[in-house]
Amino acid sequence: MLRFDHQNLLYSPMIRCGISKELVENLMPAVINAHQDIAHDRSRDILGFYDLPEQDIRPITDFSSRLDARFDTMVVLGIGGSALGNKALFSALRTEGQLPRKVLVYDNVDPVFLTEILDAIDLDRTIFNVITKSGTTAETMAAYMIVADLLRRRYPVDYARRLIVTTDKEKGFLRQVIAQEGYPSFVVPDNVGGRFSVLTDVGLVSSAFAGIDCAALLAGAGSMRDRCRDTEIWSNPAYLNGLLHYLYMRAGKNISVMMPYCNALYDFADWYRQLWAESLGKRYDRQGREIFVGQTPVKALGTTDQHSQIQLYAEGPNDKVVTFLTVNHFSHDHIIPDLHPEREEVNYLGGKRLSELLNVERTATEIALTKAGRPNANLVFDRLDAFSIGEFIMLYEIQTVFTGKLLNINPLDQPGVEAGKIATYAMMGKPGFEEELAGIRRYLSERNQLTD
């Protein structure tokens, strides 16, 4: 069971700026209101991620089992919520779970990146998964058109079996393409936003392909959801961590650092960054008042960033909350040989496990930050498996929505993203955006005049 150690977020003689238990308990009316608001949203069917543990995954697992055995690689074409979860799941379990197949993710329109992926794969053994709910995401559709053209030219007879489309159930351009081309397809649910969609077809199709136990993944998510079902704050890790982060935001700690002491979880820090930033970074509250709230998520890697970022965290501005991710038991480990027993500079390492050194360094970093009065928490995995990863995903999705309710903002929208999308459509010549293009041209003209 995933364990949340919150002690170094609370007030102590060392964490002098910590949150008192009394303050947490005094905020119980706000917790209850947020909980009731979440229940209301669930009754309106707009928080569909809560119900994903009960979904029927047989269409996904059946499809994966029927695939030609020649396919040993899947390339996901997506961006944001359509990509980060796929990458994080595969990275977390590819070694620990001894996965038989490989998943690559193309999530940036950098042309060199696409060239590198195409050069690295055997096209004969690769299947592509295009993921976009709207079917209009410029980055994903550009990649789709390049890849689909490549497949048509290379495999004119059976190109359609080499490409999957995951999109809206009924609407959008890609549904028309699916009907025309006969591509296998999966669904992005209406009631699950992109950054909350990793436990839908968006993330499960590639997971099943790779060999991840999707049933265990959903079981872990269901277990965490049940742990977070009520307002008993000290036994509800999602609400407790959300409330403590909310209180630290109010105290001016507007940076949230996620620091896995495990390379396999590093991509989940990227997944968390989108979830936390896009959900909570808002200009307006629910009454339309300007509030400019949000906590900037930052990722770090232990032990690597002990030698780069920790100096800032320990002695720089006290404006951060650090969350460690710790794994107790690794499926692979190494004994450090005692090659120089006569030299005290290194003989203390001889006979120790590499995992012991890793977790001792995490504890040492915790001690250093705590002594410096810097709040920190620890999420502990007994071991990395599909069940514990499912727990982690559900924990943070609930925590994010709950924190949004405390902040009195809408954690499900992303209006700040839309302006960039509209400007891209206009400059790329998409019909219907002529007025925006005229305004962009005026802006560019004025900017150029200022720089001349």
List the helices and strands and how they pair.
Elements (H helix, E strand, L loop, with lengths): L2 E3 L15 H6 L1 H16 L14 H9 L6 E5 L6 H10 L8 E5 L4 H10 L5 E6 L6 H17 L8 E6 L4 H9 L3 E4 L12 H10 L3 H14 L9 H14 L4 E6 L5 H15 L1 E3 L5 E4 L2 E4 L10 H6 L4 E10 L24 H18 L4 E8 L2 H22 L7 H13 L6 H18 L1
Parallel strand pairs: 2-3, 2-4, 4-5, 5-6, 7-10, 7-11, 11-12
Antiparallel strand pairs: 1-12, 8-9
Helix pairs in contact: 2-14, 3-8, 4-8, 4-11, 9-14, 10-14, 11-14, 15-16
Task: Give an account of the 3D structure.
The structure is a single chain. With 452 residues, the chain is of the alpha/beta class. The protein folds into two domains: 3-41 and 218-407, Glucose-6-phosphate isomerase like protein, domain 1 (Rossmann fold, 3-Layer(aba) Sandwich), CATH 3.40.50; 48-212, Rossmann fold. Helix content is 46%, strand content 14%. It is built from 16 helices and twelve strands. The strands form three sheets. A five-stranded mixed sheet has the order 1-12-11-7-10, with helices on both faces. Helix 9 crosses helix 14, helix 10 (237-250) crosses helix 14 and helix 15 (415-427) crosses helix 16. The protein is globular and about 70 Å long. The N and C termini lie far apart (61 Å). The mean pLDDT is 95.
